Amino acid sequence: MIVKHLKDILGTKAHAAGEGWESRRILLAADGLGYSLHDTLVSEGAALELEYKNHVETNYCIAGEGEVEEVSTGRVWPLAAGSVYVLNAHERHILRALKGDLRLVCVFTPALTGEEVHDESGSYAAEG
After folding, report:
1. Which range is the signal sequence, renumbered to this chain (predicted)?
2. 97: domain CATH number?
3. Is 77 within a domain?
4. Cβ–Cβ < 8 Å for 21, 39
């Protein structure tokens, strides 16, 4: 059994942050589950353009209001508590926090190690 607490992640190397976002990486590849679990905050007013070429990401919104735009089509979906979106085809997208900070529970497959940084395309590198 694995039991972790968010308060124990904060301020560690598993607590990553950048301009307009922070990711509290609760479960990582080292936990051996095949996926990673993150508690992510996107600051109100932030717009993040991302494309996970090597990972599938599922996002469940638990707070705030925003939208996700699929870059290739321009289609936009509203997000609020109770919304889920999945980047199952590695879609390039823009995530916007419009009203309050967006808080997302995110699952990445394959699991992130916790050492990743976004490259120029907004992706994380493929596994080793």
Report:
1. none
2. 2.60.120.10
3. yes
4. no
